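Data availability excerpt. The first of two example chains:
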Amino acid sequence: MNYDNKNFPKPTPAQAFTPLIALVVIVMTTYLGFGVDAHIPLFFSVAVAALVAIFWMGHKWSTVQEGMLKGINFALDAVLILTIVGILIGAWIEGGIVPTVVYYGLQLISPQLFLVATLIVCSLVSVFTGSSWNSLGTVGLAMFVIGEGMGVPSGMTVGAIVSGAYFGDKLSPLSDTTVVASGTGGVNIYDHIKHMLKVSGPAYLIALVLFGILGSQFAGANMDYDQIAEINSAITSTFNVNPLMLVPMILVLAMIIKRVPPIAALSVGAIIGGVWALLFQGANLGSVITSMHYGFTMDTGMAIVDGVLSRGGLQSMMWTISMILITLMFGGIIEHTRMTEVMLENLLSLAKTPKALAITAHFTTLFLIMTVLSHYLTHTLICRTFKHAFEENGLHAKNVTRISENWGTLPSSLIPWGPCGVFVYGLYGVHPFTYAPYAFFILAAMAISLIFAIVGFDMAKYEGAPSEDVA
């Protein structure tokens, strides 16, 4: 995480904040005014950051370019995972894996309990795999298609999916964000998880209740069972549906639980999906490769089935990947030229009391995840910057690591221009502004965390001299 930039002169506050202000103005003006995608507006924001660094701060172009490349480097793993997930989805649909899950799901899951079931299933997968993205790209996709078949609004379904995926991700000792947050804060990972549970537990119960209430409207007479029967008929007329089709998904989840690296596990899953298409679905090699590249296309004449099962492929992820690369170019520039450092120092100077410090940490974390757009960088900067300030004010560092997760990891899936929000949008075609009101766990956890800071409840105390910095 070291940018080796300490020899660069610090920017003034005006220089540091100008690119951020430009980002907000450009993106929001173009999105609200013209409804355009955020790619080009974000590129303009990158240009502003580069111009400030070169012509106002005196940096060379080589410095700016180095910052962009280092920013992108933070997300190369994510880009590779996105690429493989697109290939996997195309293969898993043609291989009958996703259609089989949908077929059984429509038969076995009670419509009124669908949202609750979605929350729980995605939670369990994320806890055991340590990754929200693994959950989103596998069982999350299957639950989304089932929800479409049941007539559940897509915003509600995706809200339940991301709530479960991020609950499990941030409470799993296998999660990279959990490891980074606790590690850079110098907190034992299990103490960190235990402290987070005091916020996440109540938030999860709130989500369960709210999804249960929402789901009650889909009970009994409100459901179109004839449509569900037609969907299942369309699936069985196109695919060979039987429990054997679930083997690839089970194998991938087992590999991830066994700590096989996600890139390797998902790659194996994609290949097995292609083999399943050849062996059990009567596909030929050309159609399998086409589905992996451009996505599977279904044409049954039933719009809802064709719509939800015509997806996936390498090319389907290019929109998402290009957005991630541009946003990380911006984050890399402002971090490498020390703009982020100055912004943090100015925000930290606002905190004069322990309560003000905790509140400032919340909004600074949100500010960072919305600008540098990297979990790793956000957690590293927040936990290392605020750790000593918290200890000097008698507050334990695990308060910082919890805040960093609640206001850094969780809201990332709700930011339309951030990697996680873009990933969800690319998978399901549902805009973050559509599912954000139904991301009950995320919203509740953020609210509870801030309330605890305001009233001083469950803010663990620290006794002793501030510890040394954590590398």
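And the second chain:
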Amino acid sequence: MSGVEIRELECFLVLSEELHFGRAAERLYVSQSRVSQLLGALERRIGGRLLERTSRRVSLTPLGEGFLSELRPTYEALRATVERARVSARGGLEGTLRVGFLGSADERVMGALSAFRERHPHCEVAPVEIPLADPFGAVRRGDVDAAIVCLPVAEPDLVIGSVFSRQPQLLAVPLGHPLAGRATLGAEELADCRLIGLRGPAPRYWREFMAPTATPSGRPVAPGPQVRTLQEGLTAVAAGLGTMLLCAPTATHQNRRDIVFVPVTDLPPSALALIWPHSRESARHRALSQLMTEQLVTPVGA
């Protein structure tokens, strides 16, 4: 082992895969003569030939096959150790963090994600749309690493990080609807509306919050059509098939001339939260949550 160079080992590993000096040289970004030099140096250290080379083919010798079977797992373990140390040196903030959104993200959220990229240039954030009717499925399956969803969230396997954008709920009504000209409306007036619901695996408490079946005093609210995505719901509203409750950031980000958003009083305010699985929590999740709190949460009394 005295004096052995990692480059010699890498050369042998590539050669054992390609069994061609020209292709190995291309992969290693060196000349064919340099590949021959590295292989020769390794063979002299070992004291035997590792590859047989003829004018037609390159093949491993029995010594080479045995050496390869022991070297490969050791080399991979060494490379993984170096990679873990490199990531640790950067605080674990590296790679791509896929963040799910219900519909789309508004300018404030996108600004926070841009600030995260600037603070942690080795960690990219990739926005991914998730269905309104399944707010927790994508993050549980690993389709996304985290998600920004509407509260409430009462899932014991999910972490609730930064909570922001606490604002009154808005009712989406089609242009020309009797309520479209109102500055606000009371929660009891929902009894006179057909509320668009959700068709999907969202928990019952979450679907009830998004489309309550009764007013605060207990008056029943007529159900409208059920949808899976935000755009399906807005299309149904525009078509006059029902009305739809939305959180303020989601509503105000929709630039539609055929829908009016009216604040609803007497309902619990809506809020957005960053969530992720307990089982896959990482430094990236915590760093993003901290930055979103800094950027998006208004201090008490401000």
